[in-house]
Structures are given as C-alpha cells and as structure tokens.
Amino acid sequence: MSLSGAPDARGSDATARTGVSDATMSMDLGPVAAGTVTVGVFVAVPDPHGADLQRHRRDFGDPLADAVPAHVTLLPPTTVRRLEVDDVVEHLHAAAARTEPFTLRLRGTGTFRPVSPVVYVQVAEGFASCERLEREVRCGPLERAVDFDYHPHVTVAHHLPACDLDRAQATLADYDLSFSVDCFWLYRHDDDLWRPHHRFSLGGAASRTGEDAGRRGQA
C-alpha cells in the first residue's frame, strides 16, 4: 500500500502484467441452473461519490451503468448452491472479522486495453489491503480459479467504442477521492440487477442484511 498516495506501480498500464482481474460485475449474466444463485463480493464507493461515478458511466454511454453500484470487486460473479448461501455468509463474517478498516484512495484512470475494452479509476492507496481482503474472501466456500491476477479498480466504462473509452479515460484523469473502507458487501444477481444481500463490517463490528442497504439496493 502506498501511504503517500502515489499510484501503485501496477497502475494505468497494468494490462500487460495482470490482464483483467474483473470487469465482470458489470457484464450481462445468463441464466443459472436450478438451485443455484450468482453472487459477487465488493467494496462499494460511498455516496454521493459512488452515484457520481455511476452518472459519469451513464454519460459515457455504458448501458450497464445502473446495473451495479460503483465498486471495487473482491469476488467476481460466482455461482453457488442456494443451500450454501448461509455457509458463504458465515465465511465472509470470518473474513471481515480478520480484516481491519483501511483507507482507499482512488486517483486517475487506467485501462485494460488492448486485452479488454475497459477503463477504470485506479486504486492509488489501499491496493495491498484490497489484495489481502480478496485472498480472505476467495477461499473456502468461495474458492475459485480466476483468469488473471487480482487488480483492484473501479470500472467506469466497459465494452464501448474506442472513442467513448478515450473520453472516459480523459474525463476522469484528474479524479481523486479518499475514503475509509469499514465494510464490504455480498450481492446477489436477480432480475438483471445486483442487489445487496448482506453487509460485513471489518474488524468484527455489527453487520446487517440487504434489507437495510438503502439506496444501494436500488442501484
């Protein structure tokens, strides 16, 4: 983690080294088998900043801007059996309890082009903390293979024409936001939207279910 706030060495041109760790929380997902559900885990960018990034994404022409809140993915879309969801929640409670709150700074933009047509806001501080939390999450009942090394980021444009990706990268090039990460979310994919299922507070503080999520349940 860069305490000075300088971008991590894996910043804007990380494609050649890491490829795309995930942009898939924002992708259209097909139907799942009976008795299963698609889940994802992420750190949400707090409002009003999260809503502002969604507005930018909408302005860039991304049709999936409102399908999911602005976020840093910890676990990309993963299919689990419905009967195992309680085990997943218990596992994530334990992961959260082992993790202390940390500062996340988002600054500037990067891209995964040419490997994938994605533009994102970079994680300039808190990169290593996200990596550690991702390892805590992606194990046990959520253990799965991934195609690329984990690279925390906030997607702001995905699968758009090159001119729109260029505009997104230029528009948010000076973006700079710091906030404290004290929780993460388990989301479920229902009716073409990602809906909050459970909030997990870092350090073992009280958590809550999706019914208490407020605006995040409407994104």
Helix content: 10-25%
Protein structure class: alpha+beta
Q: Tell me the overall shape.
A: globular
Oligomeric form:
single chain
Mean of all residue-level pLDDT scores: 83
Strand line-up across the major sheet: 2-1-7-8-9
End-to-end CA span: 30 Å
Gyration radius, in Å:
16 Å
Low-confidence stretches: 1-23, 211-219
Strand tally is 9
- Beta-strand content estimate: 25-35%
Q: Which H/E pattern describes the elements? A: HEHEHEEHEHEEEE
* Tally of separate helices: 5
Largest sheet: 5 strands, antiparallel
Q: What does the model show?
A:
This protein is of the alpha+beta class and 219 residues long. The chain contains 5 helices and 9 strands. A 5-stranded antiparallel β-sheet has the order 2-1-7-8-9, covered by helices on one side. The chain has a 4-stranded antiparallel β-sheet with strand order 5-4-3-6, with helices on both faces.
Layout of helices and strands:
Layout: H1 15-18, E1 36-44, H2 49-59, E2 71-81, H3 85-97, E3 102-111, E4 118-125, H4 127-137, E5 153-158, H5 162-171, E6 176-181, E7 183-190, E8 193-201, E9 208-209
Antiparallel strand pairs: 1-2, 1-7, 3-4, 3-6, 4-5, 7-8, 8-9
